[in-house]
Design goal:
The chain has about 190 residues and is an alpha+beta fold. It has one domain. It contains eight helices and four strands, in the order ββαααβααβααα. The chain has a two-stranded antiparallel ribbon with strand order 1-2. It has a two-stranded parallel ribbon with strand order 3-4. α6 runs parallel beside α8. The relative contact order is 0.17.
Length: about 190
């Protein structure tokens, strides 16, 4: 997850429960206007009057939810065309604490950064629920370890397999895509 966008990876697991197969990888925008103001809604809100700040954040939240829902539904359609059904969603969560009310967020720069990230994560969780997906959440620093535990495989072995998936796909195979793949592999393992 990034400010205003997310790396999305759709993964299928072969019947023999081997390594996952990457079906789709894409970058999904969660704001219509890819500007600093939209991608950093709480930073922008901190410069506004209280009522304007509240309205602006609410607007970006609605927009992010709608774009997240559109992206998931498009992904469902794309996968269905190829004989797959999207059943689960894995969202990487920050390790942060719960957020206070808006005035307190806007008074602390560290909370502003946290709130910006949480708004977009929540948009994907919301879109997943609206799309009737089973949602698995994983702390953003733990997807490889979570997958390792769930699959009862060594982390180094899984890392090699995920790296190999990237070699087969070709560049770019970014850290974001690798972590998303670990999270989805964990979600698939959690299903059984």
């Amino acid at each position: 997850m990034h400010s205003g966008w997310a790396a999305v990876v759709a993964v299928g697991l072969p019947l023999e429960k081997g390594a996952p197969v990457v079906l789709v990888r894409e970058r999904v925008h969660l704001v219509k206007n890819f500007t600093y103001e939209s991608r950093q809604p709480y930073h922008t809100a901190a410069k506004l009057a209280p009522d304007e700040a509240r309205a602006f954040v609410a607007h970006i939240r609605r927009e992010a939810r709608a774009l997240g829902l559109r992206a998931i539904r498009a992904l469902q359609d794309k996968l269905e065309e190829h004989g797959y059904a999207l059943e689960r969603s894995a969202v990487l969560l920050a390790a942060g604490r719960s957020l206070p009310p808006l005035p307190k967020i806007l008074a602390a720069h560290s909370l502003i950064h946290t709130a910006d990230g949480e708004l977009f994560r929540e948009a994907l969780v919301h879109a997943s629920k609206r799309s009737d997906l089973n949602i698995v959440t994983v702390r953003e620093r733990e997807p490889a370890d979570a997958a390792s535990r769930a699959l009862r495989r060594k982390s180094a072995q899984l890392s090699r397999q995920v790296a190999e998936l990237g070699r087969r796909l070709g560049p770019p195979w970014s850290h974001d895509e690798k972590m998303a793949t670990f999270a989805v592999w964990f979600a698939l393992a959690a299903k059984t």
